[in-house]
Hints:
The protein is of the alpha/beta class.
Amino acid sequence: MTSTSPDANLDALPWSYCRHGAAANDVGCRGLVVEPYTACLAHLGDADRSAYLAGLYPGADLDHRGTPISEELLSELLGAVTDPHAARARLGHARFGLATFSGDADFGGAEIDGDADFTEAEIGGDADFTRAVIAGNALFVGASIRGDAQFSSVEIRGNAQFDGAKIGGHAQFARATIGGYAWFVRAEVGRDAQFPRAQIGSDTWFASASVGGHVQFGGATLRGDTAFRGATIVGDVQFVGAAFEGDATFRGATVGGHAGFGGVTFRGDARFGGVTIGGDATFRRVVFHHVATVGPLVCAGSLDLTEAVFGTAVTIEAAAATLVCRRTRWASTAVLRLRHATFDLSDAVLEHPVSITARAKRFTQDEQEIPELGLADPRVRAASLRGVDAAHLVLTDVDLTDCLFAGTVHLDQLRLDGLYVFATTPTGLRRRGPVPVRWTPRRTLAEEHHWRATRPARAGGWTSAPDGEVPLQPAALAPVYRQLRKAFEDAKHEPGAADFYYGEMEMRRHAHDIPRSERALLTTYWALSGYGLRASRALGWLLGGIAATVLAMVLWGLPKEDSKPQSTGTLTGHSFTLTTDEPEPVNPDGPYRKRLTTTRFEKSLRVVINSVVFRSSGQDLTTAGTYTEMASRLVEPALLGLAVLAVRGRLKR
């Protein structure tokens, strides 16, 4: 595959070139002249080529820069330097810069004692260095490889430099050993770049590289710094089990598929600023020894930090569909600023304060907003806090509608700031069988929703438990409500505490582990005043009681007529004795309709109102009226007190 394009820099080439096929507008072949001949290896006569090849030996240097080389010619060339005892080609320096290979460049199993220099070479097929040993550097800067770059199990004792290289197929470095650095800066790989179980002794740079398929570094050991800054990867990135001994920089990288870092150890800084991931990002069991900031990054799928360990203080900034932090361990303080994410902190270990905050604005990198890959819902929602020690947890502007709280440790010490939202009772009229039901608005736990949704005679509007989640019974939910109530009381938020007190009492009323007598008492308390929290219910009963008492007084309590005292006297000598008798009240008689008069109603109302405020009316009453007034003086002030208590609970801060 001879190049015929004029090259303005040919005069600057550091070798004498062949010029075969030169014409008026064509400089001809650029191949290095084989001494003592006047042409390159490709254009030597048969006799001269045979003489040259016969003069080669194992370990000889090969310098054929700029030379067009066919597969047959390469086979003859390598055959001339093959060690018959080792049955492998052995070269000194291999210099093929600007060479043009019409087919495959097969150096598989070769031993190169110096450098392998293929700078700006053009390879029409595969570049195969499988199991080769290169004692010096492997230089493919600006090289063009139409097929695959096969370097599986290669041993490169120096550096591997592929800056600006273009590889049309796969870049395969499985189990490769590179003693120095591996640079793929601005390289273009058409398909996958695979480095599973590779050993790289110094830096690994893919800065501004482009990979059309997947990137695989599973089980690799990268002892220097690693940089994927500005890289574009169409497929997945896999670093499962890799070890980063130096700093790892992925700043501004774009991954079209999933990113897998499971089991990775970052001993230096890990920088993910401006990273966008089109699929899931998995950091399971990752160990961050020294990291200050993770992000801001955008993940269209799930950001999984399950069993990850953060050894130092960290700030995590992420926009993701979900954030999974099950059994994640923070050994120092941490700040999580999130967008869109539904996070799960089940069994996470918080040794120091950890705050989770919903960020209102988009994340920026270098003063530019990071695209959010179709993430639409800006809310940050909590899915579970089970097993977490909430004494170290602060949630700000978090939606707790679907959050599972049962099993949280020190839930009474949870701190909630900003605008937080809990689940609420169903709104509007619902039907429980043939009976319409209207639920009193209040904050509830998601677990109460799950339990009520399982009840046979439930009213609609309650949310069922997710698949695989077993609804908890009221006896298990009452302590959860109690701890949340205490958390709100400690924060001086009495209205919020009132909602959770109501929930606690509801769970106690429905629990099966308390005596029936206590449940009956709780049911009465609920029916009369909503556990002292529903002023309208208490006032309704109060007004009903007053109305009933007034009616009883009108019909039976007031005597037929007001008693008129009678006085009688006895005169004995100069002494006068006067006795006044109060006749017993006469029960009213006659039809009830005639007893309903304005006068009797006014008197009855005065008696009842006085009884509410513990005052005696002074009105003569029948026996039935006396007992009615006694009951009124006992019950109605209690109902009034419950109403006042309910109003106070909603207003106090």
